Amino acid sequence: MKKLTLTFCALFALVVMAPALYADGPEPSSKEKEVMQPAPPVCDFYRAHEWDLSIWGAYAFAADTGQRHVPNDDPFVDPNNTTGGETDVTNTTINFTPGFPFFTQTEPAIFNPNERVNIGRVSQNQLFARDDVWGGGADIKYFWSRYFGVGLEGVGLAAKTNFAGGGLLTLTGRYPFGRFAPYVTGGIGFIDGGATLYKFFNEKHDFLNGVVKSEQEFWTVDPVANNHVRALGQIGAGLEFRVTCHIGLMADFTWNFVFGQEDHADKIHLITEQGTSTTTEILTATTTSTVVINQAFELRPGHGSDNQDFGMARFGVTFSY
User: Fold this and answer.
1) What is the CA radius of gyration of the chain?
2) Which of 97, 183, 215, 310 has the smallest set of CB atoms within 10 Å of its CB?
3) Kind and range of the H or E element at 299?
4) Distance of alpha carbon 178 from alpha carbon 82, whole angstroms
5) Environment class of 184 (CB within 10 Å of its CB; exposed 0-12, middle 13-18, buried 19+)
């Protein structure tokens, strides 16, 4: 009886103490203590409702390259001269006294001005005034989906002497996979500035006491600025690589069409210089005067959108938000 009583007491104590002993559960093993943290989710590199800001450098080359040959000619002729050459306007004094030969000749400054005449277009390209240039720009795009976006682009190119720059409204379609996104782009906008090379004939005089002391003839090739706004169209393709979720590298190639400007071709303008050449003979005290007319054809640059198309390779960085 005592053994049965002790057995029931022991069972009762065990039932009462068990919840307290195992309230915190069994002691875990060392393996059960290691908690495997799940890998952080990979960010979505290309997203809908995304804003992209791209800053890039550019190398552009003209569709029409090379230069025309314009010879070093003196454009002036004297219609009264049978040889077809230019005649300087002079004052001449002649002494025919026997044993006292005397001859002087001067050119009055008033009838012998400095000359600068455009004699021909040199550069084939009429935007850069050279075959290729460097430049840069930036664009901002909004992608309303992962695949399509609209944007604004500004571009500047270091044309010879006169800066060429413009802006476009663009549409871009891309196809993201992983960190890469090939894309195509197109746009319409405007461009202004640039220049064309022309060749000039120059005759420069040094004057002293109202007459020509010396003169120099030389030729120069100089840019003539183009200050008319033209329409600009653009198509291209490229590739973007996202280094992080918000920073990427981009490279593309675009072809740019310059059009829409009313074409005014170069015009020929006739320059006429007129003076009086006077000769005095001391012995006979006679004076004769001859009207001298020198004429030259000058090229007056026109404007338009011909010979201004160009290709452009761009490399830059993109910030995505």
Assistant:
1) 43
2) 97
3) strand 286-300
4) 81
5) middle
87 contacts 81 by C-beta, under 8 angstroms: yes
| Local confidence pLDDT in tens for the 321 residues of the chain | 444 344 444 444 444 444 544 445 455 555 555 666 666 657 889 999 999 999 999 999 999 999 999 999 999 998 877 777 888 899 988 876 666 667 788 999 998 899 999 999 999 999 999 999 999 999 999 999 999 999 999 999 999 888 999 999 999 999 999 999 999 999 999 999 999 999 999 999 999 998 999 999 999 999 999 989 999 999 999 999 999 999 999 999 999 999 988 888 899 999 999 999 999 887 777 899 989 999 999 999 998 999 999 999 999 999 999
Q: What angle do CA 127, 129, 133 make, to 5 degrees?
A: 80
Report how far residue 246's alpha carbon sits from residue 50's, in angstroms, rounded to the nearest whole number: 10
CA 211 – CA 92 distance, rounded (Å): 12
Angstrom distances, CA of residue 309 to CA of 126, 129, 235, 236, 238: 9, 12, 12, 14, 20
Q: Is 300 helix (H, G, I), strand (E, B) or coil?
A: strand
The whole-angstrom separation of Cα 86 and Cα 90 is: 12
Alpha carbon 53 to its chain centroid, in Å, reads 21
Q: pTM score > 0.85 for this model? A: no
Residue 73 and residue 85 in contact, taking contact as beta carbons nearer than 8 Å: no
Q: Max CA-CA distance within the chain?
A: 182
Does residue 169 contact residue 185 with C-beta atoms inside 8 Å?
no
Question: How many other CB atoms are there within 10 angstroms of residue 207's CB atom?
Answer: 16
d(CA 252, CA 141): 15
CA distance 114 to 155: 40
Calpha distance 200→114 (Å, rounded): 13
Question: Nearest CA to 43 among 319, 244, 321, 249?
Answer: 244
